[in-house]
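Quick one: structure for this chain?
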Amino acid sequence: MKDFIKKSNKELVTLLSQKREAVRVFRFNVSGSNTRNVKEGSSLQKDIARILTLLNKPKVQATTETK
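Got it. Here's what it folds into:
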């Protein structure tokens, strides 16, 4: 999480698209039984959730301040 905080929004968006592509490739490899590390999928999903949390954080803070 610490390395995600240091990145800008543009970098986070590109990293998010790369992680989503990696999840897609992982799913195809699992269905074809070409993968050995099955924990990789859950770590990719957690990274995606962390990135989305950081991207949405300013939006949530703005809505709570206006109420």
